[in-house]
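Materials and Methods. Structural model of Zinc finger PHD-type domain-containing protein. The 649-residue sequence of Zinc finger PHD-type domain-containing protein from Rhizophora mucronata was retrieved and submitted for structure prediction as follows.
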Amino acid sequence: MALTDFKKRKRTPQVLTIHSLASLVLHGSFRENIREFLKKRAGIEDYSVGGSPVWCTLFESESGDVVFPLYTVEVAVERAAEPLCNPCRCVGWGHHFVSKRSYHMIIPEGEEWKKHRWKLSLELEEHLFHAVIHCNGFGHLLCINKIEENSKHPHGEELMNLWDNLCTILQTREISVLDLSKKGSMDLRLLFGVACRRPWFGYWGYKFCRGSFGVTEQHYERAIDILSSIDLDKIVHDFSKTKNGKLIEEIIQTYRDATESQLVTIGDLLQFMLTFKSKSPVKRKKVVALVATSSKISSKTIPQDKIHVPSDTSHKGKTSKRDSLASFVAKMDGRWPSRRLEYAVNVIADTLEANGAEMCRQELRDAVREHIGDTGLIDYVLKSINKVTVGNRTIHRAINPTTRLLEFSLKPVANGKNSGIKMEEQTDVQFPEPALHVNEDLLFLYNNVILGYPNDHLVSIATSAILNSKHFVKKWQVKGNAEDTLLRLVCQVRPTYDELVEKLTRPLPPGELVVLPQSVGASELKAKLQCALRDTYCIMDKFTVSDIKIAKLKGREGQDLLSYAAEQGLLAWVTGYGLDLSTSLRYEGGIDDWKVDCLCGARDDDGESMVLCHVCHVRQHTECNNIIEKDEAPPSAFACDRCSRGKKH
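The predicted structure was written out as tokens:
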């Protein structure tokens, strides 16, 4: 989307980046911070969605090539088509009190927002990004469609970086995600679980929340341990008599030859393969010694571009005018490992050579993106590289005096010298063999090894456990800094005995975060806390605070108590009166108490399809009862196995 599309507005749009966003410091709870953010960093739109106001914040992509909007829709519960939260129920937050407001954050795809904003824009699944955060700071990442990294949209990793920074700045409490993401036909939670011992979202701190079909966190961690630690030699042996055994052995050996690191387990192998975010093939490397030298190159020297693996890793010297590849990488302080930086430089050199040795920055960047998906890595290297020697070639960067564009060129090293890398003298130097494509190899191993391991029930159970672990969550700690003069209390309302017995039968929801000056007095504390609770929850619309006790500081009251409250995130028990127990907007999971007792061990609603037994009124999974979705029996016709057996006796 072009910036000119937004310049027609009355207000001059402010364009943010992830780095400029970090300069915004907010000290309150999410309920307060989101209002401050919209006031300072967003512009109100001249339309509404279902009567709900809409704000727009413009962001610039990490590469600087794309400006895209983040729309925030504030939905009051009385205007919501569905006032209760189904994701809360499925993730185990069905006992949370219903929040008065929710904030939908949406990055639409192209013109889709303009087409559908008058209809059900909040329910579209085609958005590039969609999340919702309740005003108590708990929320859900609903969808992130990971656009290909050579498209005109910000890609998945970039969107997640933005989202994670935004959640941190706004001081959210917890964010859940239903991980159904795929790479082609491969489930990423399984692929990354085996390769990296965490889901794809785990890179940003998301961890196991709950599993389906009775899978617990212990089951999940055990399954990860089992699958990721399968020895590659064992795989070769176990598949040796199968039709794919020879190809599996060849693929394993190809990637073992392509790295100097030891690949021992299937986890090691898949993690190494995932680092090649490239459509270009991985070439098979013969065992050839590379040595650093300052002497002249012998007649056996082979140009570096003939070997598709990082090289020149030990040479540290540089000439007065040029950097060797190793010295260039050594001076870079980015977040990427040396191996990936070296690989990026090699791809840049190969791309320049394949395109006539001269290209402007944008042309070069677009061409390199065909081989490297990480645009942040590409931009970082292009910003830094100049007069760097790769093999017998040097990469130069300069401003074209006519076009004023940044251009890159590739020139041969003067006097026939190169970066000091040469082959050990051998009588039989072998070149790389034909290549295999990384994505094809990943898919083949995923389907035939992970999903198709022969005659191993344990591997099959572990695979099912990971695939049935779809709900992940990230938690932010309640804390301040050393110079913070604010008091952060997590205020837990304690209902009366009668309220707990009659209406509030579920576990108590998390306390509400309240941020106050440490010098606040007791009466002011009560007033501010009461205001915060009334502003946040439907059930507390008329709640009156009568007493507050801080759990770790019993026996002190008023200002004396608060003067000792230096620790952040202290739990404060709140008593009072006026809870609206008659409202249907009591719990996010609804007021009906589901009883779940399934054959698989599930004891709570996990979001999977269930059927109600008309005899005992207990719910079980349709899958566990062999009920096909389209032929699902109505509740009045289904009797669970226990009730059916009871009738027979």
